[in-house]
Design a protein that fits this description.
Blueprint: H1 3-27, H2 36-48, E1 52-57, E2 61-67, E3 75-81, H3 108-124, E4 132-138, H4 147-153, E5 162-175, E6 179-181, E7 184-187, E8 190-198, E9 202-203, H5 213-231, E10 238-247, E11 253-254, E12 257-266, H6 269-289, E13 293-302, E14 305-307, H7 309-323, E15 328-330, H8 340-344, E16 349-357, H9 377-396
Parallel strand pairs: 3-4, 3-5, 5-16, 6-15
Antiparallel strand pairs: 1-2, 2-4, 6-16, 7-14, 8-12, 8-13, 9-11, 10-12
Helix pairs in contact: 1-3, 1-9, 3-9, 5-6, 7-9
Length: about 400
């Protein structure tokens, strides 16, 4: 029996167990950097599987290791995130979140369950591959500064034999049974923008006695959009959006302060840094020119995510072997962000999408939605393909 058939057989055998793991994690979600019970649960599973691991990394992070033949020759890392989101779940399912206001609405329960399933398979096949496989269970993907950055600082990528890292993410837009891949640039950097526009409040009918913070704020927003659209290099995708504007005035009251919050996203670090400076300079000078003041803060978030060409080519061939060429999809660029990007700036990486949707059964809500769920058949495919890809990546690693 070939390795694909062996792995598929094991994935089918362990599906029921991994389904229970996923449903347990879904029922007991924990927010970013608070994944204490989640980490304990994962640690117990690794103990049950007789896989060595270290815990307490970057807070609640866990790193396990599976050694194959000649274990120090080369290493491939597999990563799953563990945190949930501050969302009230609206699904009426047996495994619905038991914690009000917290939900695995981005599929991190799926990621962790699949990695545990892949770990069990790989540990049983450790005599079938050369090298080692590192299992990274990471906290805090959803919250700055990103658990990936903290895991890197804690040294998870310092193994000299490390050849690359693989990450999997649910994708409800893809039908279950399909896998999505993209080589090269894939996801954007993400920065948070916080602005205080300070004027002098007063009666709205007597604007000559005020410094109108609302007018200043609107002028700043319009000009920032023009600045970005007129300065962004045409080959670099860029998005600037403001999702919150608050000025606590009234129909006849101009407020002293207007606050603005937004996001800036792009795919080039030089342009990213230049845009930060240009936005701050423009906003401060507009406010000054209108008689007020502007406090402009950019909280630098995740970098852009780029997939290594060679690793992605290996993953693409592995996906064709595992689910069939007709079920391997080329992904488009995304302006969303992922802290897996930090890893790709330190080592080779491949971040791919696992189809989890089922339109016929109404399983089609997108991530970060209170009704997000998956077709659980994706667990069997997810753990199996992750295990198979790990072996393929080790085989091709140089």
């Amino acid at each position: 029996m070939d390795i694909v058939s062996i792995i598929k057989e094991k994935a089918a055998e362990y599906f029921a167990e991994v389904r229970i793991i996923r449903q347990h994690l879904h029922a007991y979600p924990e927010l970013s950097f608070e994944e204490v019970e989640t980490a304990k649960y994962i640690a117990q599973k690794l103990t049950d599987y007789k896989i060595s691991f270290k815990e307490g990394i970057a807070g609640t992070g866990i790193v396990g290791t599976i050694q194959g033949k000649n274990p120090t020759s080369k290493t491939i890392a597999l990563r799953a995130d563990m945190d949930a989101l501050p969302i009230f779940e609206k699904n009426n399912v047996a495994y619905k979140s038991t914690i009000d206001g917290i939900m695995h609405a981005c599929g991190h329960d799926v990621h962790s369950a699949c990695l545990l399933g892949a770990a069990k398979i790989l540990n049983e096949l450790r005599n079938e591959f050369e090298g080692s496989i590192q299992l990274i269970f990471q906290p805090g993907e959803e919250k700055l500064p990103g658990g990936a950055s903290l895991m890197i600082k804690a040294g998870v990528l310092e193994d000299q034999s490390l050849k690359g890292i693989v990450g999997q993410h649910v994708y409800p837009e893809l039908e279950v049974g399909k896998i999505g891949l993209r080589s090269g640039m894939y996801m954007a950097s993400a920065d948070e923008i916080y602005v205080n526009v300070i004027g002098k409040g007063g009666h709205a009918a007597l604007p000559q006695h005020t410094v109108d913070a609302v007018l200043m704020a609107s002028t700043i927003i319009v000009n920032l959009q023009q600045l970005v659209s007129r300065n962004a290099p045409p080959t670099i995708p860029t998005v600037l959006s403001f999702g919150k504007i608050e000025g606590k005035g009234a129909t006849n009251v101009l407020p002293d302060v207007v606050t603005i919050e937004g996001t800036f996203r792009t795919m080039n670090e030089d342009w990213r840094a230049l845009a930060h400076k240009k936005m701050i300079h423009l906003a401060e000078n507009i406010a000054k020119g209108m008689g007020g003041k502007c406090e402009f803060e950019v909280r630098k978030g995740y970098p852009y995510l780029t997939n290594d060409n060679d690793m992605t080519a290996t993953a693409y061939q592995a996906a064709q072997n595992y689910v069939g060429a007709e079920n391997v999809i080329d992904l488009d660029l995304r302006m969303t962000a992922e802290d897996f990007a930090f890893y790709t700036h330190h080592t080779k990486g491949c971040f791919y999408r696992l189809g989890t949707g089922n339109m016929a059964e109404g399983i089609n809500h997108k991530v970060h939605n209170a009704q997000f769920d998956i077709d659980e058949k994706a667990l069997e495919i997810g753990m199996g393909f992750m295990a198979y890809q790990a072996i393929c990546q080790l085989k091709e690693a140089t």
